[in-house]
Amino acid sequence: IIDTGSQLSIMSRQVSKAQINHPIDVGRSISMNDVNGGKGRLQGLVENVPLTCRAVQTKANLYVGNHVPCNLLLGRPW
User: Fold this and answer.
1) 64 and 45 in contact (C-beta within 8 Å)?
2) How many CB atoms lie within 10 A of CB 20?
3) Is the pLDDT of residue 5 over 90?
4) DSSP string, 1-60
5) Is-above-0.70 flag for pTM?
6) How far, in Å, CA of 67 to CA of 73, rounded?
């Protein structure tokens, strides 16, 4: 999902383990508020994750969360 209203780019823990397999910097975990007013904690940050969409290749810094609403959310920083 591309979300221009999100201040963060986030991926699920399952995607991080199964497809990305880069180290998570747990020293950069953060608390967040979701669109519904709920609060949660993101476990850490994975930097420079390669992303490909057809012929376009780019990189993103992605926070990792256990209970996130989708596998990948690309916010404004991306």
Assistant:
1) yes
2) 17
3) no
4) -B-TT-SS-EEEHHHIIIII----BGGG-EEEE-TTS-EEEE-EEEEEEEEEETTEEEEE
5) yes
6) 13
